[in-house]
Amino acid sequence: MSEKIETEAKIKITSEEYNSLSVDLSNKISKVLRESLLRDYTDVFKELSQTNIFYKNAENILLRMRIEQRTGMCGYQKPNIYLTHKTNPNENSVYKSVNEDEIEVAEGDLENLLKSIGFEEQVRYQKKRTNFIYNECAVSLDILPNDKRYIEIEGEEKNISEVIQRLGLQNKPIEKRSYLEILRGTKDGGRKKRS
């Protein structure tokens, strides 16, 4: 497991902007998607469905289990499962910036393991995501369960700013909350700051 700093800009967009950005990004980017760059997949994936399950223990530590189901050029793909812990949001960053520990886990009984060590399921939601790589950033077009649409741009701050400009989104507000916080209508999704 390796810790990294995750920096991202999340921007709420309309259905029309979502459709326009999807076409625009597809035209700008050939067959390179986020997973092939960051997770070394060889297939080209058009769209994926993510089920996010959040667990919390007595110490208020929040973990996310993400199950990614892809549809690609070869049809159905075996799901990938990731366990993630995020801490220490950098409040001084222009964009959302947190420490992230993430590991890929094999299919199995992870839910029962988490419950057996004191983690209880808090919330579960599914979103649809389409991924692109653009200007050295992972760009994701997301549809949440409430049918709200967002674009999420992850990378270095300088590159994120350039992508926002190139896509004409510079006048839209940046959302620093997580999707969990957005769906719950809160500012703190339950993460505990690391001391």
Secondary-structure blueprint of this entry?
Blueprint: E1 2-13, H1 15-28, H2 34-38, E2 45-56, E3 62-72, E4 75-76, E5 80-87, E6 96-105, H3 110-116, E7 120-134, E8 137-143, E9 149-154, H4 157-166, H5 179-184
Antiparallel strand pairs: 1-6, 1-9, 2-3, 2-7, 3-4, 3-5, 5-6, 7-8, 8-9
Assembly type of the shown chains?
Answer: single chain
Largest sheet geometry? 8 strands, antiparallel, barrel
Gross morphology is: globular
Q: Could you state the order of secondary-structure elements as H and E? A: EHHEEEEEHEEEHH
Strand order of the largest sheet: 1-6-5-3-2-7-8-9
Q: How far do the termini sit from each other?
A: 19 Å
CATH architecture: Beta Barrel
Number of H/I helices: 5
Q: Report the CATH C-level class.
A: Mainly Beta
The whole-angstrom Rg is 17 Å
The structural class is alpha+beta
Give the domain tally. Answer: 1
Which fold does the CATH topology refer to? Hypothetical Protein Pfu-838710-001
Question: How much helix is in the residues?
Answer: 10-25%
Strand content: 35-45%
Q: Report the count of strand segments.
A: 9
